[in-house]
Amino acid sequence: MQIIVIMKSMDMITAGIKQADAVDIRCRHCFLRTYNRLFDKYKIERNQRLYFFMHYNQILLKYKTLISPEIQQLLNEKFCEIIGVDDPFEEEKSNSNKIAMGLYARWKNEVLESSDPFNLALRLAVAGNIMDYGAYEKFDIRHTIQKVLSADFTIDASSRLKNKIKKAKKILYLGDNAGEIVFDKIFIETIMHNNLTYVVRGASILNDATLEDAKNTGMDLAADVFSNGYGAPSTILRKCSREFQKVFQEADLIISKGQGNLEGLITHHDPRIFFLLMVKCDVIADLLQVQKGDFVVYNQN
User: Fold this and answer.
1) Nearest 5°: phi and psi at 276?
2) Is residue 6 part of a domain?
3) Does residue 44 sit in the same domain as residue 129?
4) Are residues 48 and 107 in the same domain?
5) Of 219, 222, 247, 269, which sits most exposed with the smallest number of CB within 10 A?
6) Ordered DSSP codes for 65-111
7) Which residue, among 85, 278, 287, 31, has the nearest Cα to 177 in the 3D structure?
């Protein structure tokens, strides 16, 4: 494929998207950071980079009604096509799972010995949300665990969540990242619900968990594992499979992990959904009226 250079500087990249106002400018900057890191990782030459950013501008200008995770799916698709790699974060995902599995036995025992197993397991699940290469170039899960254990939830619907779990006949748990999935597993094993479905992405996107990650971490032994049928870093109901939509509608309680799932579902104002996350960017902080770095258990009831 012939690569045509149509831009002479990276400054022109951002200049070309000033009219693309559907996605927050801060999200666009985050996209740029992510893909520039990946281009450096794969040692992609300048012409290919500029070819990608030509499509980057076109996508932002064309799809003005899409939210950030949908744009991310389109960008990821084009990026993978250009560099010829199916899963750009394969190595990071594998390492995240290994790191988390290395912590599993210790924290599972801590939960079993805790005076409040539910609270500790919930906090570990929220701490796991730090394992996000879409938001960070690097992170420290051990430090984040200690921080969550000593912090208050800025928005705290944990008592309501605990009561809903006891009453729910069907629970749907929407996963987020590789590595994080291990801490979700501890939480799921703690609540011990007999009808819980854990959902992963329908295709590789950033470092989000897929069916392969569920198998590699043993999540398939703790819950029924299901794909949402769509390769965005979120849950976009209208684009997910009909099978997933049916499971979603039948759930009595939905536990949603991470910022991406929140972005896709918050406008539904569904009282069944409890959002569990660490706030990792100013866009989500503004949306929830909290601070970047806060820990949240949020329900729109």
Assistant:
1) -115, 120
2) no
3) no
4) no
5) 269
6) T--HHHHHHHHHHHHHHHHT-S-TTHHHHHHHHHHHHHHHHHHHHHH
7) 278
- Picking from 126, 208, 136, the residue whose alpha carbon sits closest to that of residue 161 is 126
Pick from 229, 163, 172, 177: nearest CA to 202:
229
CB 125 within 8 A of CB 103: no
Within a domain: residue 1?
no
Whether 248 and 206 map to the same domain: the answer is yes
Q: Model confidence over 121-130: pLDDT tens digits? A: 999 999 999 9
Same domain for 32 and 129, yes or no, is no
Give whole-number Cα distances, 129 to 5, 45, 108, 168, 227, in Å: 39, 33, 17, 24, 19
Per the structure, the complete domain to which residue 117 belongs is given by 99-299
- Say whether both 21 and 147 belong to one domain: no
Is residue 112 in some structural domain?
yes
**Separation CA 293–CA 285 (nearest Å):** 9
The reply to whether 22 and 167 lie within a common domain is no
C-alpha span between 276 and 1 (Å, rounded): 44
Any idea what DSSP says for residue 43?
A: T
* Structure tokens, 44: 């992609």
- CA-based nearest residue to 238, from 259, 265, 258: 265
pTM of the model: 0.92
Q: At 198, give phi and psi (nearest 5°).
A: -105, 130
Number of domains in the chain: 2
